[in-house]
Amino acid sequence: MSLTSVAEAPKTSALERYKGFVQQGMVLLVLVLLFVFFSVMNPNFLTWGNVSSLLLASVVTATQAIGLTFVIATGGIDLTPGMGMLFCMVVLAVPMTAWGAPVWVGVVVGLLAGALLGTVNGVLISVIRMQPMIATLAMMLVCWGFALLFAGAKTLSLRDVPGFTNIAMGQLLPGLYNGVIILVFIAIVAGVLMNKTVIGRYALAIGSNKEATRISGINTQRWEVLAYTICGVFTGISGIIMAAYLNSVPPNTGQSYEMYAIAAAVIGGTSLRGGRASVFGAVIGAVTIRTIYNGLTILGFEDAWQKVVLGFVILIAVFVDIRRRGGEE
Protein backbone atom coordinates (compact mmCIF):
# COMPACT_ATOMS: atom_id res chain seq x y z
CA MET A 1 0.00 0.00 0.00
CA SER A 2 1.43 3.36 -1.02
CA LEU A 3 1.53 6.51 1.04
CA THR A 4 -0.91 8.13 -1.33
CA SER A 5 -3.42 5.31 -1.12
CA VAL A 6 -3.43 5.38 2.67
CA ALA A 7 -3.73 9.15 2.84
CA GLU A 8 -6.63 9.14 0.41
CA ALA A 9 -8.37 6.03 1.82
CA PRO A 10 -10.91 7.78 4.03
CA LYS A 11 -12.29 9.85 1.17
CA THR A 12 -12.23 7.42 -1.80
CA SER A 13 -15.67 5.96 -1.21
CA ALA A 14 -18.62 7.93 -2.53
CA LEU A 15 -20.84 5.65 -0.45
CA GLU A 16 -18.93 6.65 2.68
CA ARG A 17 -19.44 10.32 1.94
CA TYR A 18 -23.11 9.71 1.21
CA LYS A 19 -23.61 7.90 4.54
CA GLY A 20 -21.88 10.75 6.34
CA PHE A 21 -24.10 13.35 4.67
CA VAL A 22 -27.21 11.30 5.50
CA GLN A 23 -26.31 11.04 9.19
CA GLN A 24 -25.47 14.75 9.46
CA GLY A 25 -28.71 15.54 7.66
CA MET A 26 -30.62 13.41 10.16
CA VAL A 27 -28.97 15.20 13.09
CA LEU A 28 -29.81 18.56 11.53
CA LEU A 29 -33.40 17.41 11.02
CA VAL A 30 -33.61 16.34 14.66
CA LEU A 31 -32.32 19.77 15.69
CA VAL A 32 -34.99 21.48 13.59
CA LEU A 33 -37.69 19.23 15.07
CA LEU A 34 -36.46 20.06 18.57
CA PHE A 35 -36.74 23.77 17.79
CA VAL A 36 -40.28 23.24 16.48
CA PHE A 37 -41.31 21.12 19.49
CA PHE A 38 -39.97 23.49 22.14
CA SER A 39 -41.39 26.50 20.29
CA VAL A 40 -44.86 24.93 20.25
CA MET A 41 -44.60 24.01 23.94
CA ASN A 42 -43.36 27.47 24.91
CA PRO A 43 -43.25 30.35 22.40
CA ASN A 44 -40.57 32.08 24.48
CA PHE A 45 -38.11 29.45 23.26
CA LEU A 46 -37.99 30.94 19.76
CA THR A 47 -37.35 34.54 20.80
CA TRP A 48 -34.07 35.90 19.44
CA GLY A 49 -32.84 36.63 22.94
CA ASN A 50 -33.21 32.97 23.91
CA VAL A 51 -31.81 31.61 20.64
CA SER A 52 -28.75 33.88 20.78
CA SER A 53 -28.13 32.83 24.38
CA LEU A 54 -28.53 29.18 23.36
CA LEU A 55 -25.97 29.60 20.58
CA LEU A 56 -23.55 31.31 22.96
CA ALA A 57 -23.98 28.46 25.46
CA SER A 58 -23.09 26.03 22.65
CA VAL A 59 -19.79 27.71 21.80
CA VAL A 60 -17.55 26.14 24.45
CA THR A 61 -18.92 22.62 23.94
CA ALA A 62 -18.72 22.98 20.16
CA THR A 63 -15.15 24.31 20.30
CA GLN A 64 -14.01 21.35 22.41
CA ALA A 65 -15.95 18.92 20.22
CA ILE A 66 -14.22 20.27 17.11
CA GLY A 67 -10.82 19.64 18.70
CA LEU A 68 -11.86 16.17 19.76
CA THR A 69 -12.82 15.21 16.19
CA PHE A 70 -9.12 15.21 15.27
CA VAL A 71 -8.26 12.91 18.18
CA ILE A 72 -11.24 10.58 17.79
CA ALA A 73 -10.54 10.41 14.05
CA THR A 74 -7.26 8.63 14.92
CA GLY A 75 -9.11 6.14 17.11
CA GLY A 76 -8.02 7.89 20.33
CA ILE A 77 -9.82 9.75 23.07
CA ASP A 78 -9.06 12.80 25.21
CA LEU A 79 -10.60 13.38 28.64
CA THR A 80 -8.75 16.63 29.35
CA PRO A 81 -10.87 19.32 27.60
CA GLY A 82 -12.90 20.09 30.76
CA MET A 83 -10.15 20.47 33.35
CA GLY A 84 -7.73 21.48 30.62
CA MET A 85 -10.02 24.41 29.92
CA LEU A 86 -9.89 25.39 33.60
CA PHE A 87 -6.08 25.12 33.55
CA CYS A 88 -5.88 27.38 30.48
CA MET A 89 -8.30 29.85 32.08
CA VAL A 90 -6.14 30.13 35.18
CA VAL A 91 -2.90 30.36 33.21
CA LEU A 92 -4.22 33.14 30.96
CA ALA A 93 -5.78 35.02 33.89
CA VAL A 94 -2.66 35.20 36.06
CA PRO A 95 -0.59 37.48 33.76
CA MET A 96 -3.49 39.87 33.29
CA THR A 97 -4.62 40.03 36.93
CA ALA A 98 -1.31 39.73 38.76
CA TRP A 99 1.08 41.49 36.37
CA GLY A 100 -1.22 43.81 34.43
CA ALA A 101 -0.41 42.19 31.07
CA PRO A 102 -2.58 43.23 28.09
CA VAL A 103 -5.39 41.04 26.81
CA TRP A 104 -3.44 39.71 23.84
CA VAL A 105 -0.78 38.31 26.16
CA GLY A 106 -3.41 36.40 28.12
CA VAL A 107 -4.90 35.05 24.88
CA VAL A 108 -1.51 33.86 23.60
CA VAL A 109 -0.63 32.29 26.96
CA GLY A 110 -3.98 30.46 27.00
CA LEU A 111 -3.42 29.09 23.50
CA LEU A 112 0.14 28.00 24.34
CA ALA A 113 -1.05 26.29 27.53
CA GLY A 114 -3.62 24.35 25.53
CA ALA A 115 -1.09 23.40 22.86
CA LEU A 116 1.37 22.22 25.52
CA LEU A 117 -1.32 20.11 27.18
CA GLY A 118 -2.27 18.52 23.88
CA THR A 119 1.34 17.82 22.97
CA VAL A 120 2.00 16.15 26.32
CA ASN A 121 -1.10 13.99 25.81
CA GLY A 122 0.08 13.05 22.33
CA VAL A 123 3.56 12.10 23.52
CA LEU A 124 2.20 9.99 26.36
CA ILE A 125 -0.14 8.14 24.03
CA SER A 126 1.73 7.86 20.74
CA VAL A 127 5.39 7.85 21.82
CA ILE A 128 5.27 6.30 25.30
CA ARG A 129 2.24 4.24 24.24
CA MET A 130 -0.02 4.70 27.22
CA GLN A 131 -3.70 3.91 26.83
CA PRO A 132 -5.45 7.13 25.74
CA MET A 133 -8.16 6.96 28.40
CA ILE A 134 -5.71 6.35 31.24
CA ALA A 135 -3.17 8.93 30.06
CA THR A 136 -5.72 11.69 29.54
CA LEU A 137 -7.55 10.82 32.76
CA ALA A 138 -4.29 11.30 34.63
CA MET A 139 -3.59 14.57 32.80
CA MET A 140 -7.11 15.74 33.58
CA LEU A 141 -6.31 15.41 37.29
CA VAL A 142 -2.93 17.10 36.79
CA CYS A 143 -4.62 20.07 35.08
CA TRP A 144 -7.23 20.29 37.81
CA GLY A 145 -4.59 20.23 40.54
CA PHE A 146 -2.33 22.81 38.88
CA ALA A 147 -5.31 25.09 38.22
CA LEU A 148 -6.28 25.03 41.91
CA LEU A 149 -2.67 25.60 42.99
CA PHE A 150 -2.06 28.52 40.62
CA ALA A 151 -5.36 30.16 41.54
CA GLY A 152 -5.03 29.45 45.25
CA ALA A 153 -8.39 27.62 45.04
CA LYS A 154 -10.03 31.04 44.69
CA THR A 155 -12.10 32.68 41.98
CA LEU A 156 -9.97 34.95 39.81
CA SER A 157 -11.86 38.06 38.75
CA LEU A 158 -11.23 39.51 35.29
CA ARG A 159 -13.51 42.53 35.69
CA ASP A 160 -10.52 44.88 35.91
CA VAL A 161 -9.07 43.67 32.59
CA PRO A 162 -10.33 46.20 30.00
CA GLY A 163 -12.03 44.67 26.98
CA PHE A 164 -11.45 41.02 27.86
CA THR A 165 -15.11 40.09 28.25
CA ASN A 166 -15.80 41.49 24.76
CA ILE A 167 -14.05 38.45 23.29
CA ALA A 168 -17.18 36.42 24.04
CA MET A 169 -19.85 38.93 25.02
CA GLY A 170 -19.21 41.78 22.59
CA GLN A 171 -21.32 42.16 19.45
CA LEU A 172 -19.45 43.08 16.30
CA LEU A 173 -22.66 42.11 14.51
CA PRO A 174 -25.76 43.49 16.29
CA GLY A 175 -27.68 40.76 18.08
CA LEU A 176 -24.94 38.14 17.65
CA TYR A 177 -22.33 37.52 20.34
CA ASN A 178 -18.67 37.53 19.34
CA GLY A 179 -18.29 34.05 20.81
CA VAL A 180 -20.63 32.69 18.13
CA ILE A 181 -18.68 34.51 15.40
CA ILE A 182 -15.45 33.00 16.70
CA LEU A 183 -17.04 29.55 16.63
CA VAL A 184 -18.07 29.96 13.00
CA PHE A 185 -14.55 31.06 12.06
CA ILE A 186 -12.71 28.25 13.87
CA ALA A 187 -15.21 25.69 12.56
CA ILE A 188 -14.43 26.77 8.99
CA VAL A 189 -10.68 26.56 9.66
CA ALA A 190 -11.04 23.14 11.31
CA GLY A 191 -13.23 21.90 8.46
CA VAL A 192 -10.56 22.85 5.94
CA LEU A 193 -7.88 21.14 8.04
CA MET A 194 -9.95 17.98 8.36
CA ASN A 195 -11.15 17.70 4.78
CA LYS A 196 -8.60 19.50 2.62
CA THR A 197 -5.16 18.93 4.20
CA VAL A 198 -2.89 16.02 5.04
CA ILE A 199 -3.51 16.59 8.75
CA GLY A 200 -7.11 15.44 8.45
CA ARG A 201 -6.41 12.74 5.88
CA TYR A 202 -3.64 11.18 7.94
CA ALA A 203 -5.72 11.35 11.12
CA LEU A 204 -8.54 9.51 9.37
CA ALA A 205 -6.11 7.03 7.81
CA ILE A 206 -4.61 6.23 11.23
CA GLY A 207 -8.08 5.69 12.64
CA SER A 208 -9.06 3.45 9.73
CA ASN A 209 -5.98 1.25 9.84
CA LYS A 210 -3.02 2.46 11.87
CA GLU A 211 -0.70 -0.43 11.04
CA ALA A 212 -1.27 -0.16 7.30
CA THR A 213 -0.69 3.58 7.53
CA ARG A 214 2.59 3.04 9.39
CA ILE A 215 3.79 0.37 6.96
CA SER A 216 3.10 2.70 4.03
CA GLY A 217 5.82 5.00 5.34
CA ILE A 218 3.79 7.60 7.24
CA ASN A 219 5.17 8.65 10.62
CA THR A 220 2.03 7.83 12.60
CA GLN A 221 3.54 9.02 15.89
CA ARG A 222 4.11 12.51 14.53
CA TRP A 223 0.58 12.86 13.17
CA GLU A 224 -1.04 11.42 16.30
CA VAL A 225 0.86 13.90 18.46
CA LEU A 226 -0.23 16.69 16.11
CA ALA A 227 -3.88 15.57 16.40
CA TYR A 228 -3.70 15.81 20.20
CA THR A 229 -1.91 19.15 19.95
CA ILE A 230 -4.71 20.51 17.76
CA CYS A 231 -7.22 19.25 20.30
CA GLY A 232 -5.25 21.06 23.01
CA VAL A 233 -5.31 24.31 21.04
CA PHE A 234 -9.09 24.10 20.81
CA THR A 235 -9.18 23.42 24.55
CA GLY A 236 -7.20 26.64 24.98
CA ILE A 237 -9.66 28.51 22.75
CA SER A 238 -12.56 27.19 24.83
CA GLY A 239 -10.78 28.43 27.96
CA ILE A 240 -10.39 31.93 26.51
CA ILE A 241 -14.06 32.06 25.52
CA MET A 242 -15.29 30.67 28.83
CA ALA A 243 -13.16 33.09 30.86
CA ALA A 244 -14.43 36.00 28.75
CA TYR A 245 -18.02 34.78 29.09
CA LEU A 246 -17.80 34.51 32.89
CA ASN A 247 -15.39 37.46 33.22
CA SER A 248 -13.82 35.40 35.98
CA VAL A 249 -12.27 31.97 36.64
CA PRO A 250 -14.25 30.01 39.26
CA PRO A 251 -12.30 26.99 40.61
CA ASN A 252 -15.12 24.55 39.82
CA THR A 253 -15.36 25.43 36.12
CA GLY A 254 -14.99 22.66 33.54
CA GLN A 255 -16.36 19.62 35.34
CA SER A 256 -18.00 17.15 32.91
CA TYR A 257 -17.41 19.42 29.90
CA GLU A 258 -15.33 16.73 28.20
CA MET A 259 -18.32 14.39 28.36
CA TYR A 260 -20.56 16.92 26.62
CA ALA A 261 -17.89 17.54 23.97
CA ILE A 262 -17.41 13.82 23.28
CA ALA A 263 -21.18 13.41 23.13
CA ALA A 264 -21.46 16.31 20.66
CA ALA A 265 -18.84 14.76 18.40
CA VAL A 266 -20.52 11.34 18.47
CA ILE A 267 -24.01 12.76 17.92
CA GLY A 268 -22.60 14.67 14.94
CA GLY A 269 -21.31 11.52 13.25
CA THR A 270 -17.73 11.12 14.49
CA SER A 271 -17.07 7.42 15.06
CA LEU A 272 -15.51 6.35 18.36
CA ARG A 273 -13.71 3.61 16.43
CA GLY A 274 -11.83 6.20 14.41
CA GLY A 275 -11.63 6.73 10.67
CA ARG A 276 -14.65 9.01 10.43
CA ALA A 277 -15.06 12.55 11.76
CA SER A 278 -17.16 15.60 10.99
CA VAL A 279 -16.42 19.13 12.16
CA PHE A 280 -19.81 20.35 10.95
CA GLY A 281 -21.49 17.44 12.72
CA ALA A 282 -19.66 18.23 15.97
CA VAL A 283 -21.02 21.78 15.92
CA ILE A 284 -24.55 20.58 15.20
CA GLY A 285 -24.19 17.98 17.96
CA ALA A 286 -23.16 20.67 20.45
CA VAL A 287 -26.09 22.91 19.48
CA THR A 288 -28.41 19.89 19.79
CA ILE A 289 -27.20 19.18 23.33
CA ARG A 290 -27.65 22.78 24.40
CA THR A 291 -31.05 22.94 22.71
CA ILE A 292 -32.20 19.96 24.78
CA TYR A 293 -30.92 21.59 27.97
CA ASN A 294 -32.37 24.99 27.12
CA GLY A 295 -35.74 23.64 26.01
CA LEU A 296 -36.19 21.38 29.02
CA THR A 297 -35.21 24.23 31.32
CA ILE A 298 -37.84 26.50 29.76
CA LEU A 299 -40.41 23.72 30.17
CA GLY A 300 -39.53 23.48 33.86
CA PHE A 301 -37.68 20.16 33.94
CA GLU A 302 -35.11 19.70 36.69
CA ASP A 303 -31.42 19.37 35.86
CA ALA A 304 -31.47 15.68 36.79
CA TRP A 305 -34.08 14.93 34.11
CA GLN A 306 -32.10 16.92 31.58
CA LYS A 307 -29.11 14.66 32.20
CA VAL A 308 -31.31 11.55 31.86
CA VAL A 309 -32.62 12.71 28.48
CA LEU A 310 -29.14 13.62 27.25
CA GLY A 311 -27.84 10.22 28.38
CA PHE A 312 -30.43 8.45 26.24
CA VAL A 313 -29.60 10.69 23.28
CA ILE A 314 -25.92 9.69 23.56
CA LEU A 315 -26.84 6.00 23.83
CA ILE A 316 -28.89 6.27 20.66
CA ALA A 317 -26.04 8.03 18.82
CA VAL A 318 -23.52 5.36 19.87
CA PHE A 319 -25.95 2.59 18.93
CA VAL A 320 -26.40 4.10 15.48
CA ASP A 321 -22.61 4.29 15.07
CA ILE A 322 -22.20 0.64 16.11
CA ARG A 323 -24.90 -0.52 13.71
CA ARG A 324 -23.44 1.53 10.88
CA ARG A 325 -19.88 0.30 11.39
CA GLY A 326 -21.11 -3.25 11.93
CA GLY A 327 -22.66 -3.18 8.52
CA GLU A 328 -19.33 -2.15 7.00
CA GLU A 329 -17.27 -4.96 8.51
Can you walk through the features of this model?
- The protein has one domain: ABC transporter involved in vitamin B12 uptake, BtuC.
- The chain is built from 14 helices and 2 strands; from the N terminus they run ααααααβαααααβααα.
- It has a two-stranded antiparallel sheet.
- α5 runs antiparallel to α11.
Itemize the secondary structure elements and their pairings.
Elements: H1 3-8, H2 14-41, H3 48-73, H4 81-98, H5 103-127, H6 132-151, E1 156-157, H7 166-169, H8 178-196, H9 198-208, H10 210-215, H11 220-246, E2 248-249, H12 257-267, H13 279-298, H14 303-328
Antiparallel strand pairs: 1-2
Strand content: under 5%
- Number of beta strands: 2
Number of helices: 14
CATH fold assignment? ABC transporter involved in vitamin B12 uptake, BtuC
Outline of the structure:
The protein is mainly alpha-helical. The chain has helices at residues 3-8, 14-41, 48-73, 81-98, 103-127, 132-151, 166-169, 178-196, 198-208, 210-215, 220-246, 257-267, 279-298, 303-328; strands at 156-157, 248-249. Strands 1-2 form a two-stranded antiparallel ribbon.
Q: Which short descriptors sum up this protein?
A:
two-stranded antiparallel sheet, ABC transporter involved in vitamin B12 uptake, BtuC, mainly alpha, globular, disordered N terminus, 329 residues, 1% strand
